Amino acid sequence: MSITEDLQQLRQDAKENRNDFMLGNGKGDPKDNLTRQRPGAAKILTFNDCKNLYASNGIVKNIIDIIPEDMTRAGWTLKTENKEVKKAIESKWRQLKTKDKFRKLFADDRLYGDGYISVGAISNSVDNGANLTQAIDMEKLKKVPYLNAFSAQKVSRFYTNEDMFSANYGEVEQFEISRRSRIGSQIMSVGGMSDTTQEIVHQSRILHQQSLRFEDEPDGRSVLEGLYDIIIVMDTSLWSVGQILYDYAFKVFKSPKVDNMTKKDKAEIGMLMDFKFRTEALALIGGDEELKKESTPTTGMKDLLDYGWDYLSGVVRMPKSVLRGQEAGTLTGAQYDVMNYYARVSSMQENQLRPHLEYLTRLLMCCDDDAGPKIDPDTFEWAIEFNPLWSVDSKTDAEIRKLTADADKIYIDSGVVDPEEVYDTRFGRFGVENTSKFNADSLEEIDEIAKKVLEAYNANRLVAMAKRMPITRYPHNVERAYAKNMLRLTQQIADIVLYEFDSNIAPEINSRNIRFDGYIVDSIFQKSLDRIKALTLGIFTAKEKYSIASKFVRASNSTAKTQFVNQMEVAGVDPTKTEPWLNDYMDEAIAENVSYIGSIGDEYNAKTEQIILRGAKEGRSSQEIRDELVDQIGMTENKAKFIARDQTGSLFGGLTTMRHKKAGIPGFMWSDSGDSRVRPKHVEYNGQYFSYDDPNAPIPGKDYACRCVAIPEFDPSKIPEYIAA
Questions:
Q1: How do residues 269-313 score in pLDDT, each as one tens digit?
Q2: Are 658 and 589 in contact (CB under 8 A)?
Q3: Residue 158: beta bridge partners?
Q4: CA 518, CA 521: separation in Å to the nearest integer?
């Protein structure tokens, strides 16, 4: 048989007899993407492309799922002194299944380029609750019954703020959603048909996550687009390894009789020998025949696969161990690459997950009937803390503890710290618990030991406590927030006054067509002055004044309470849990500050009227009068700042003093603000101790605009009155 005939026969045999288990998968044919790679050519993936890659490729599934799972796996807690709010909010988080919803949000963002969660908001106002185009009104919010995560397939388009001079540049303002208007039972009742409508939804009702978006492109980009080439390479390498293993070992049978065999004979003897040699290890062949086993060389295969994994790991920015599915959250030894990975996940929690969580938490706090009683989130201190992402194994933990103990011993021997400080830091205030080996016969000995321990503890407690006692700090942030709210109202009425003056009063003055006697001037300008008064009343409403005053008083109380609790915990004193005096005290403070806020508007109106009428009667120019009005704005703003500083010091000092007295603290140490504005007398007081039992003792914050504070002192021997006694 000629060579040409042999080739023809080989082609025919391949067509008829090929039984390749991976036949038809497109590897290496003209449709194989690997044969058409072009450097720098972008790969745009459709929604279905992403879905099919995720469904069919395990590596892709890990790339998409692992980071969202690590971001949400350990969960988060609400840090606040208000235990009732903490318990209610965390319970509501669990009811809403926030961990699962946010995991789906970030998985969709990575897979499709955009992730969405719809926020169910039930309002006390029917119009606000049912009208999805309106923003959620937190003042009228009643309940948030559900969160639903959904993919970009249900979003037709969204409207983004493209004004680069806007504070909200790049943010989505409205979404156009494809919404099914019937639920499953309704669809079945009408013959399997559902209505899909396009609805506009305000951005406050949807949590939108979009990590990668190019300018002038509305939709986000899937992370798979940048990884497509290496994914194809890894997929092809897997197929190649499978093919090599499939053909790893094959047998070669040499015989001079083969040349004279027909195609049918070859097929029969091939099947027979393949069956025999799969089940039997013995072969009987003639002297001129040869049977041997050939294997595929695999030298260098591991290096090639490692290169692929290293490249994929670098592009995805995930360690190979994590990418391959190592147990999450546990580290052994010096796995610095995994530590760096968890540091990256932690930064994603802070920058991407935290804003969504804080917005949801603020909604829950504002609900009338959901996560506990309604509470203004701006009136007390709270924060969301993410739980640790990883921990070391037992062996590594023991090694770390030994190294720490060695370092502590060096510090103690060098006199850097005391053993008591190390004890408190490593084991807590009461130390670790160990099982006692004493029996009933040694009770008297135990009592004697306990007495000596107590005496030694009381002797050293005050000294150690003084080193750790948190100092009382003046609440500058509360003062600034209070001043800012009052200045906002001041600026609004200033704008009204200048607008009314420029539009109506200045033209009359400039025309000089009027007699400047008292009657004529009053009658001409009275309409403008009346309008100014009416508009001012619309700004300084009773509701607005009460809102500003109540927020200030509650914020002052929250700050004072937090500092007091921290100091009491260091002192080993259980702070008062119930404060029956507090409500009346705060109500009086709110009423007092409502009066102060109202006085700003009243005084400004009176000064404005006086400046305009006096200037017109004296024949001054409109510009001169306007300049004086502008000067008056500055004086009014200074008054607002003074009220904020004076009331902050007074209220904070009063709350601190009241709590100290109720807790039985004998006295305090005076601490000034340490700047040039401190009164000379208060500079003298700084560092001195005063008794709360002394009716003539000065109290920080009592003098006008005083920013000094009281640091509690538990040792009676330091207080002058007790020394004299």
A1: 777 777 766 655 666 666 677 767 777 777 777 787 778 788 888
A2: no
A3: 175
A4: 5
CA distances from 90 to 97, 98, 101, 383 (A): 11, 10, 15, 12
The length of the chain in residues reads 725
Residue 186 has a pLDDT of 52
* Residue pair 177/199 in contact by the 8 Å Cβ criterion: yes
Residue pLDDT, tens place only, 370-389: 777 888 888 888 889 888 88
CB atoms within 10 A of CB 324: 13
- CA-CA distance, 712 to 670, in Å (whole number)? 9
Q: Which residues pair with 392 in a beta bridge?
A: 331
pLDDT class of 721 with cuts at 50, 70, 90: low
Q: What is the C-alpha separation between 563 and 561, in angstroms, rounded?
A: 6
Structural tokens at position 113: 């380029």
Angstrom distances, CA of residue 614 to CA of 77, 242, 610: 62, 98, 6
Question: Rounded mean pLDDT of 214-235?
Answer: 82
Choose between 185 and 159: higher pLDDT: 159
Residue carrying structure tokens 């903490």: 86
Residue whose pair of structure tokens reads 């942030």 in the numeric block: 477
Q: DSSP alpha helices (H): ranges in 18-57?
A: 47-56
**Residues sharing a CB contact under 8 Å with residue 396, sequence separation 6 or more, in sequence order:** 331, 332, 333
Closest CA to 145 of 171, 164, 168, 119: 119
Domain positions in the chain are 47-221, 476-713
Average pLDDT value over all residues in the chain: 78
The pLDDT tens digits for 110-123 are 999 899 999 988 88
pTM over 0.70: no
State the Cα torsion 275-278-283-287 to the nearest 10°. Answer: 70
Apex 121 CA angle, 119 and 124, nearest 5:
170
Query: Could you give the C-alpha distances from 47 to 5, 53, 66, 111, 128, in angstroms and in order?
Result: 51, 10, 20, 9, 34
Q: What angle do CA 28, 32, 36 make, to 5 degrees?
A: 105
Instruction: Say whether 408 sits in a helix, a strand or coil.
Output: helix
> For residue 137, what are the CA distances in angstroms to 201, 363, 545, 701?
14, 9, 20, 38
* Alpha-helical regions (H) of 249-300: 263-279
Non-local (6+) Cβ contacts of 245 within 8 A are none
- Any idea which residue has 């490249």 for tokens? 311
Tell me the C-alpha to C-alpha distance, in Å, between residue 313 and each of 39, 107, 242, 276, 333.
20, 18, 22, 46, 20
Locate all alpha helices (DSSP H) within 414-475, ordered by sequence.
Answer: 419-427, 443-468
Residue 650 confidence (pLDDT): 92
For the segment 12-53, what is each residue's pLDDT rounded down to a tens digit? 555 544 444 444 445 555 555 555 555 555 678 888 888 988
Cβ 691 vs Cβ 710: under 8 Å: no
Instruction: Kindly tell me if the per-residue pLDDT of 684 is higher than 70.
Output: yes
Q: Is 675 helix (H, G, I), strand (E, B) or coil?
A: coil
Q: Are 194 and 180 in contact (CB under 8 A)?
A: yes
> In the 8-state DSSP scheme, what is residue 135?
P
CA 156 distance to own-chain centroid:
28
Rounded-to-integer distance, Cα 201 and Cα 203, Å: 6
List the structure tokens of 185.
């039972």
Phi, psi (5° rounding) for residue 620?
-75, 155
Q: DSSP assignment, residue 351?
A: I
Sign of CA dihedral 208, 211, 215, 219: negative
Convert the pLDDT of each residue in 584-599 to its tens digit: 899 999 999 999 999 9
Phi-psi region of 576 (alpha: psi -120 to 50; beta: other; left: phi over 0): beta
Contact 658, 585 (CB under 8 A): yes
Residue 580 DSSP symbol:
T
What are the pLDDT digits (tens) for 503-545?
Answer: 888 888 887 654 445 444 555 677 888 888 888 888 888 889 9
